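Structure in, sequence out. Go:
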């Protein structure tokens, strides 16, 4: 964490100096906003938290609830989401309060007495170390609380506007604020009253029954699996020995997916209620909590479950549905106009809860759209950037639904229906990277290059998330995770992995590819770095970091180019935390497959690798960023 660069801070360093629209921010929802987010759930709140880091962007997020969510339905936090929380600054705290899932156990009918269940296998949750972060279980409400804190501590001092419900919208397709939104007060003295807000962009994150989706003519397409589950969060006394482990329990009476919860006592059970007739007309949803508990006891035999308190319960029928697009531009009109209204999360994809994907995928939707809206509104990128949101996230949603169909079908099978006794646990182990959030790989686009130079950095596949690794910070010798210094501040990251020569020697004329690259990036009008607006810190748009092959003790900061030692803040202090060295005990060049000739790895603001290039490929680097910065390069700064 870096602070004091704006002056001495005696309070919480997470509270950033107020700036831009945060100064004298009005309590009342303005009549005109840059971005109106409908729904303060996971997708809406992460988008709002990201946009709150752009000081000059007026973002407001509304929700029909009268106040914060007290109990959410989602609870599974995949490792990719925890990486995301690290970028927003609260991973360490939410990890401390959450339940850590480190393994899964599988229970099946006892071959000697099929009326009883026995433990069949234990499976590690992350057998290959795909992330340094654990899989967590914690209530969705706490996740939203943390994003609300990020917003409140941001330069814009943002916070949700509760007690307002979306009713309708009209897009005039012209003017500075083309979208007019009608809202209704749902609480307080003005309950029932309508009001309008004009917006440049609208994001609908208002759930599976999204009114925003309906307003832009998007339709959910898909089907039901004709299978129902009772879900309950309970405090109970039981003799089932694995009550504090995630467990798949299959018996002759049905199936249970057991999910331990935070706090050491609460747990969730998804209880199999069986097949649902086509003419049921949702009567299965009338199943009582007593019936769900009774069914759970049948499945757990010979163990018993004595429920003492029910925190929450519901009955749902498995369904898999997806919209044809994630914005308001009809499919046959894509490319003819700029999207103005977007949908995210459950508003555009629904599936079962048992794979723990809903909240996780929704947050990646929101982050993907949030930084893109910020860049367009601040003039960092052209409006064409916004078309990549639907193109990227719709593919991810379809992959999620395909996976969830497989997982849900397997969870609903009877033991005798499996091809082999170990089929379920083998599927879980084989596919763990997908539910963990690490199989997403964006296709080539405006912001993702092709794989021409991929061999230079095999461990950083283009289009996939940037996997962190340990390095040594040169200025102080501290071992740190390289990826943990990429905060959700809207900046692109450019990681310069040096060749064996590093930054060369102090003697004049010493050859160094890194020195040549640094000179070009700092001075060339074609460099993305020189697109940074005059008056802003040199690294305001592009965070450029250096990683050398030599141990940190052999790196002389005195000869490191100023590009990697930028000046920051009103006092123009030197930022020393951008120069790193490989750790001999865990060499990042080896662990991530970085060519010893060096490489440049370009990473998007949402942590996905956008390009891999040779150190000498300045023309290709310029060509990659030219269309991204086409909105109008501001005045070039003096070197």
């Amino acid at each position: 964490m870096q602070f004091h660069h704006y002056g001495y801070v005696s309070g919480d360093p997470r509270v950033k100096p107020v700036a831009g629209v945060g100064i004298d921010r009005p309590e009342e929802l303005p009549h005109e906003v840059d971005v109106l987010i409908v729904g303060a759930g996971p997708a809406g709140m992460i988008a709002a938290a990201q946009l709150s880091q752009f000081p000059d962007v007026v973002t407001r997020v509304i929700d029909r609830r009268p106040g914060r969510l007290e109990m959410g339905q989602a609870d599974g936090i995949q490792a990719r989401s925890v990486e995301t929380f690290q970028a927003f600054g609260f991973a360490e705290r939410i990890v401390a309060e959450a339940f850590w899932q480190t393994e899964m156990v599988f229970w099946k009918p006892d071959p000697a007495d099929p009326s009883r269940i026995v433990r069949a296998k234990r499976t590690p949750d992350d057998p290959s170390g795909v992330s340094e972060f654990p899989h967590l279980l914690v209530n969705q409400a706490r996740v939203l609380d943390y994003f609300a804190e990020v917003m409140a501590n941001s330069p814009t001092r943002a916070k949700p506007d509760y007690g307002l419900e979306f009713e309708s919208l009209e897009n005039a397709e012209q003017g500075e604020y083309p979208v007019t939104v009608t809202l209704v007060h749902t609480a307080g003295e003005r309950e029932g009253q309508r009001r309008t807000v004009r917006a440049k962009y609208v994001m609908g994150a208002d759930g599976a029954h999204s009114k925003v989706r309906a307003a832009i003519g998007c339709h959910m397409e898909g089907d039901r699996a004709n299978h129902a589950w009772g879900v309950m969060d309970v405090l109970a006394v039981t003799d089932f020995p694995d009550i504090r482990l995630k467990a798949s329990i299959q018996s002759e009476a049905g199936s249970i997916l057991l999910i331990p919860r935070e706090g050491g006592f609460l747990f969730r059970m998804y209880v199999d209620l069986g097949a649902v007739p086509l003419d049921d007309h949702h009567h299965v949803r009338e199943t009582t909590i007593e019936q769900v508990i009774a069914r759970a006891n049948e499945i757990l035999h010979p163990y018993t479950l004595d429920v003492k308190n029910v925190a929450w319960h519901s009955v749902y029928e498995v369904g898999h549905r997806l919209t044809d697009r994630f914005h308001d531009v009809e499919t046959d009109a894509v490319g003819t106009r700029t999207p103005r209204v977007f949908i995210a999360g459950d508003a555009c994809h629904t599936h079962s809860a048992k794979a723990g994907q809903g909240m996780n995928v929704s947050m990646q939707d929101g982050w993907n759209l949030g930084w893109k809206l910020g860049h367009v509104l601040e003039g960092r990128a052209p409006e064409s950037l916004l078309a990549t949101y639907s193109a990227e996230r719709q593919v991810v949603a379809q992959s999620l639904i395909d996976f969830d169909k497989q997982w849900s079908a397997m969870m609903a099978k009877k033991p005798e229906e499996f091809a082999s006794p170990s089929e379920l646990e083998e599927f879980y182990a084989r596919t763990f990277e997908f539910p963990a959030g690490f199989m997403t790989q964006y296709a080539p686009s405006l912001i993702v290059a092709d794989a021409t130079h991929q061999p230079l950095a095999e461990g950083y596949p283009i289009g996939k998330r940037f996997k962190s690794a340990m390095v040594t910070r040169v200025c102080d010798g501290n071992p740190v995770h390289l990826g943990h210094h990429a905060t959700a501040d809207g900046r692109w990251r450019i990681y310069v992995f040096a060749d064996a020569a590093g930054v060369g020697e102090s003697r004049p004329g010493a050859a160094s590819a890194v020195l040549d690259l640094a000179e070009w990036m700092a001075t060339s009008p074609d460099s993305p770095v020189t697109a940074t607006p005059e008056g802003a810190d040199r690294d305001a748009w592009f965070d450029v970091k250096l990683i050398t092959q030599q141990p940190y003790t052999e790196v002389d900061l005195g000869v490191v180019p100023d590009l990697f030692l930028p000046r920051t803040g009103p006092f123009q202090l030197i930022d020393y935390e951008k120069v790193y060295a490989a750790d001999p005990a865990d060499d990042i060049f080896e662990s991530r497959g970085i060519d010893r000739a060096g490489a440049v790895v370009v990473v998007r603001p949402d942590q996905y690798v956008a390009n891999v290039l040779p150190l000498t490929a300045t023309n290709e680097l310029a060509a990659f960023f030219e269309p991204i910065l086409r909105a109008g390069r501001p005045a070039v700064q003096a070197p």
